Each structure stands twice: as C-alpha cells, then as structure tokens.
Amino acid sequence: MAPNDSAETSEATGTVVGRRKAARYIVPFAVAGVAAATIGLVPALANSGDPDLPDITAQELIEKIAASDEQQLSGTVKVTTDLGIPSLGGLAGSFAPDAGSGGSSADPESKLMELASGTHTLRVAVDGPDKQRLSVLGEGSEYSLVHHGDDVWGYDSASNEVYHAESDGNEHAAGKAPEGVPGTPKELAEKALAAADDTTSVTVGGTAQVAGRDAYKLVIKPKQSGSTIGSVTVAVDASTGVPLKFTLAPSSGGKAAVDAGFTQVDFAKPDASSFSFTPPKGAKVTEADELEAEAGKNGAADTARKDLGALEDFEGLNVIGKGWSAVAEIALPGGAGLPAQGSGDMPAQAQQFLDALGDKVTGDFGSGTVFKTRLVNALLTDDGKVYVGAVTKDALVKAADAAE
C-alpha cells in the first residue's frame, strides 16, 4: 500500500474543454446552472479492493496522470450526482419557453444537462481526437452523441429525432458534453488538478481496484475553512495513469455529491462502427444552423441569449479571495435581478424551482437571494450582481459586503 506522501502543487495539468454557448436560458437558470458547472471539479471513488502496489509520491502520481496518453478506449461509466437540487431535465423550457419552440429533443445542449442530477449509465468510446461516442442509457431508450471528423450527430431514440452539426474545426462542436456536465474521469481529474494551488493539500491515500484494474488514490483537500468541498479522491490506473474514478465528499458530510467512474474499461481500439451514424428511417433531422436561425427570429429569447453570452464570457468578473474560498462576483447585463414574486415575469415551475433553493439574505451590500446546493452556493443581489463559489452562505454574504 502506498504511503501517505504529500505534495503542495502550484501548477498541474489542464485541459481545454469544448463548449458551446448555452444561450437557451435566461439569467435565473444560468445562476442555478453554476452549481452544475462547478461539478466539473470532482467525482467519486468506490473502493472495491486494496491491491499491493509500489510506493509512489503525490507529485509522481500527478506526473503520471499528466503523461498518460491513451488515445483509444471504450467502457461503461456510472455517474451519480446529488447536489441537493431538483432534476434539471426539461427545466430549460420552463425558464425560456419561447426558446424551446422549434427545437430538437436530440440537441445535446439541453439533453446532456440531465446528467447534472440523478444516476445515469453511460457508454463511451474514443479513438483519437476526431472519433468519440457517448451514449446515455435510459429505460427502454438511448441518447447518443457521435463525433466523427467534422460531423457531430445527436440521436434521441425515444423521440426518433436527430441533431446534426458540422464542427469545421470549431471546438464548441467537438462532440463533448456542455461544459459543467460530467464527462470522462480524465477530463474531471484534469480540472481538479488544474485548480490545485498553495491552498491545497495533495496526498496519496492508498490503493483501490476500479473496473477490475489496480489504482492509486490521489486525495485533494482544501486547507482553508469555509469551503463546501471536503475532499476530492481520484482513482488513477496504476499501469496507464488514466483516471478511472473520483469522489467529491462535501464538507457537510453525507454521501458523495458527485460520483463518476468506470465500471468497465478496455484500452483496445474500439470497433470503427462505434463512430458511424446514419439517421434512422423516418427520423426528424434538425440541423444546428436551423436552430440558430429560428432562435434569431425570437426577439426576447435572442436578447436572453446575448445576456447569457455576456455572462459566459465573464464580462465584469471580479474574483474575491483565492483558492477554495474564492468567490466570483459577476455583474449581470443590465443590472437585472430576479423578477419579483407574483410579477408574472417567470413561469410557475421556474418560480417553484428557485423558491426551493433560495434564502433571502441582507447585509451591507443590500438584499438578495442565496441559492443553495450541497456544493456550490450563489447569491443574486436585488441590484443584479451574482456572487458564486463553493463556499458557505455566510462566506457569500461576507464577500458581497467586502465588495461594496
């Protein structure tokens, strides 16, 4: 069993994650979505064995992850997310009903957001940077996202609808899940390590067996108080250095907030048929540019997209503090806070969703609403500022007061 060696890290490997503009939701849903976005930090570890492996230091294990270059793999991934929020499936249409008209149930932007809550089984296959397949298995149905060269296909078997986009070298159409949605264990581990700095303790916490493979456990913990994150554990394949599984343990205790890892994995070259796709007979095929054109016809929805686009590009972003207790301050476009309750500006389902999460708070900054999850909390002030971080409610209020 490996010793509990520690290492302080100021730099770690990072990754460029392809993302497409979310642009289908108005600001309140964007705020709630920040919680889903931050789960990219971490996932979960279930120890099914304790193999006897050669000793390794934390720095050596980090370097092993960075050096891993497995271009081909296939397997099954189980993802369980428990952030303490209602299911996100279908809520996008409630927050922006006009934007949903003329859309496609096979559009990955909304379909894969369902992974941000509940338990899901995925099948994945990768053959280099130009061939990937991700399938979400449902009860009697399946959703598949296939990237092959310049083509990205989404297929929802339940509705027999197809979504098609041409990447043209655009990373946003590279066939990956929207940013913030749990991806492969490797992508998630790289995000966690990229966030490590001198506020972080990184140690080797023993060994495990994951998906039938021997692995080391890399344990990442905050040194600071006030964080909602207790620890992150990454199971790293002892042979290849590929992250196989992780655990995010919230500081509040209880079960993992996010659990994502392989239950079966094979590093052989996947069959070429995994990356071929032909729309089934009778399927409704929607082109990505058609959706964009339709969106442009809807003035209100288009305005919301532009507003959220500004938020995604971090205009007006100010970071308060550092490390695990850092809080991001974002000035919303137009200085607009949440619609007043009973004003009729928000659908009832959306209002119920926000009420279930929100606590009214006051301070030197004025007044606002804190939206709580087990991992990420966000304060939306009445004058249209957002303070968000993996910190407690009191830490958010303190940050907002300090910013005034």
UniProtKB/TrEMBL annotation:
Signal peptide: none annotated. It comes from the Bacteria. The chain crosses the membrane at residues 25-46. This is DUF2092 domain-containing protein. Gene3D superfamilies: Lipoprotein localisation LolA/LolB/LppX (2.50.20.10). InterPro entries: LolA/LolB/LppX, Sporulation_related. Keywords: Membrane, Transmembrane, Transmembrane helix. SUPFAM superfamilies: Prokaryotic lipoproteins and lipoprotein localization factors (SSF89392). It comes from [Kitasatospora] papulosa.
